[in-house]
């Protein structure tokens, strides 16, 4: 039944997904890809919540309400919530029910509306360390839940990989000695490959440790579900999310999320490159502007971005006043995570 509904959704996207709702222009390949990924996940969530639609056209108000509660309970960031909710609006529009999906805050009256505001530049650090998390304790607890999860946490903190990149990483193949290669088919956004340099001895220790635990032919993600079936990418992503809820690393619980591993990496690597991030008190006049831009370009390339402007979402804007100054120093990454343990903003905010 669920497979049939997903096939109907694929056909619906094929008919309508190639046109942007905002201006009726042709949608990009990445936009269509997101339609398929997110709407498939929404169908999974509906089934998890006990709602088994027979046809995509049967989407109703109760289904929308259930999805709102379910995605919020996952502890997703406002930006991720916006992505889900935008796709819900697309679904309703495509089946001729444009007014069906209201603003997300309408379905969650107990949540402070300011929580849903999506900001581009970080005004304070989003990293785990600055959120007050004990990194070594997090790794111990992750290992206690699942050793592969512990490996993903180590790699995430050390190389700033995204969730899907972690799940799809073939660590033995990706380790090229002086850098970690993220292949085009292994999860990067828009299929854009990159090489992440090994710049600190700690990164080499982490890679060697993880390679001892993960077989050469395996992805870093789980090969099987908890029921022993072959694990799909979506099943792996669900499992990843649920484990982070168990670790209580969500925006609602501690002010950061799994994505905070990338912020942690971005801040640490920026400092290794001689740049003090704005979220840790760095100012625009700390170096020549050409050097400042070059260092930001280097960090963003490591994270898989080609635009310097994206840097502000990870470690703040130098045009803004940092809200607090952190106490970390360049040599600290190895002290934070030890491998030997076995263990268009207004429009965007209107949308949610």
UniProtKB/TrEMBL annotation:
Residues 326-352 are annotated as: Disordered. GO terms for biological process: DNA integration; DNA recombination. Residues 342-352 have a biased composition (Acidic residues). Residues 22-97 form the Putative integrase N-terminal domain. Keywords: DNA recombination. InterPro entries: DNA_brk_join_enz, Integrase-like_cat_sf, Putative_integrase_N. SUPFAM superfamilies: DNA breaking-rejoining enzymes. One of its GO terms (molecular function) is DNA binding. This is Putative integrase N-terminal domain-containing protein.
